[in-house]
Design a protein that fits this description.
six-stranded parallel β-sheet, alpha/beta
């Protein structure tokens, strides 16, 4: 088990030259840990407690939360969403504000992604601390300081909201979560193989800040989950499920230490977010877990990297293609539709596709080509990853989650435009190989079984 006190609520001087910090008061992952809320409530003297949950999450964890409050001799109010499918939107934010008593000084949120994202936003606005009692190891946002919310029909990520006061991961609850939610959490973790390589790639090419110690913490957590996928997760072994929850928390801590999401998000998240946005905009669907999208995108990314290695190994020079801003903008409007304004605005602000910037980056790629190829070859074997994902019933093919061939192709080409962040997709764009790679990858994936 992790001694979280070594990593939280203190400045940690690092060999990278920076001081790292993550201000989460308590992290408890293990058996029967919900009862610890009783001690925390008494120690802090919280007097006006409110429970926020939905009809599903309160069924699986409510009994333990109520027992902890009884032990603390604490009175409480509660607001339980009755929605069959809870959406993280402005309506439900308003409902929480409406139902939480004005005198509330501590909230116990019971749930996973949506409940946590809603409560983080409300907690910041109300200046009231909250604890999240996790009901599924389904996503890496538990220890995050951001909330992705759907506002006016669009997915918007609100940053700098702060952390939960406590994260409670009771393995007795987590191991009984629906299989698709456990698989989603593992998919989110497997995506870290990609983003850790992307982070170092940007460090090599752009001189972006990079911390080997954060990378080491994250990689250890991901490797542990990979072993658990080979033996333990499918069987719902408590130690294996605990390793998933721990890795999800590590992702948030890594983000806090770094100051941005580099240790937890790369092109696999860009493609995943692209599909989430398209499903919401085109089909009004929000029923597929974030980590499930990311897991599928991780396999796509491994094929993209496989193509990138071949391109680097067989070319000693590259002719950077001139960036046609007018044609690019037409394609962005066609692909992103109502969401295109923010994409065009970002390019107008940062000019990441500028021909001269692309040429400078490709010079650095060529100068460090051997190191970059070796870095890319550290990614896991595709067949081994798929075998793991099959074993835990985690989707790995786009078609398994209704991603069309068009959405797959567009994600490879256009998902990079959502962030000003360098990675393999930008590298391939810079040297004019992105569309060809997209065609090849789509063909390879269509032949997967």
């Amino acid at each position: 088990m992790v001694d979280w006190n070594k990593y939280l609520n203190k400045e940690i001087a690092c060999s990278c030259g920076r001081k790292h910090q993550c201000n989460i008061k308590h992290v408890d992952i293990g058996t029967n840990v919900v009862i610890k809320l009783a001690d925390y409530i008494q120690e802090e003297g919280f007097r006006h407690i409110c429970i926020v949950a939905d009809v599903h999450t309160i069924k699986v964890a409510g009994e333990k939360v109520y027992a902890a409050l009884k032990k603390a001799d604490a009175a409480y109010d509660e607001f339980i969403f009755t929605d069959e499918e809870l959406i993280p939107n402005e309506l439900n934010i308003g409902r929480i504000f409406t139902h939480i008593p004005n005198e509330c000084d501590f909230v116990i949120a019971v749930g996973s992604g949506v409940i946590n994202d809603l409560m983080r936003f409300v907690s910041k606005k109300m200046q009231v601390p909250y604890a999240i009692v996790a009901t599924a190891p389904s996503m890496d946002g538990y220890a995050s300081a951001v909330s992705p919310l759907i506002i006016d029909g669009f997915k918007i990520t609100y940053e700098g909201l702060g952390f939960p006061w406590a994260i409670i991961g009771d393995v007795d609850i987590l191991k009984d979560a629906p299989v698709h939610m456990i698989a989603s959490g593992v998919g989110d973790i497997f995506g870290k193989y990609i983003c850790l390589v992307e982070w170092k790639l940007s460090h090599i090419v752009n001189g972006e800040y990079y911390c080997p110690e954060i990378e080491k913490l994250m990689r250890k957590a991901v490797d542990t989950v990979a072993k658990a996928a080979d033996d333990g997760i499918a069987e719902r072994n408590p130690a294996a499920i605990a390793s998933v929850m721990e890795a999800l928390v590590w992702a948030g801590i890594g983000i806090s230490y770094c100051g941005n999401s580099r240790p937890a998000s790369g092109c696999e998240h860009q493609m995943g977010h692209f599909w989430e946005m398209m499903f919401l905009q085109n089909y009004h669907r929000h029923d597929i877990e974030h980590g499930t999208f990311v897991g599928v995108a991780a396999i796509v990314a491994l094929y993209v990297y496989k193509a990138a290695i071949k391109i680097l190994e067989t070319n000693s020079s590259f002719k950077v293609i001139s960036f046609d801003k007018e044609e690019w903008e037409k394609q962005i409007i066609k692909v992103y539709g109502a969401c295109s304004d923010s994409i065009v605005k970002l390019e107008n602000e940062v000019h990441k596709n500028d021909t001269q910037k692309a040429a400078a980056r490709m010079q650095n790629v060529l100068a460090n080509k051997i190191q970059i190829i070796e870095l890319m070859k550290t990614l896991p074997n595709i067949d081994s990853m798929i075998t793991r994902m099959k074993k835990i019933k985690e989707p790995y093919l786009p078609e398994q989650i209704e991603i069309t061939s068009e959405l797959l192709h567009n994600a490879i080409i256009y998902a990079k435009e959502m962030r000003n962040r360098y990675g393999v997709l930008q590298m391939l764009f810079d040297c004019g190989e992105l569309e060809k790679t997209a065609d090849e990858v789509c063909t390879e994936i269509s032949n997967l079984k």
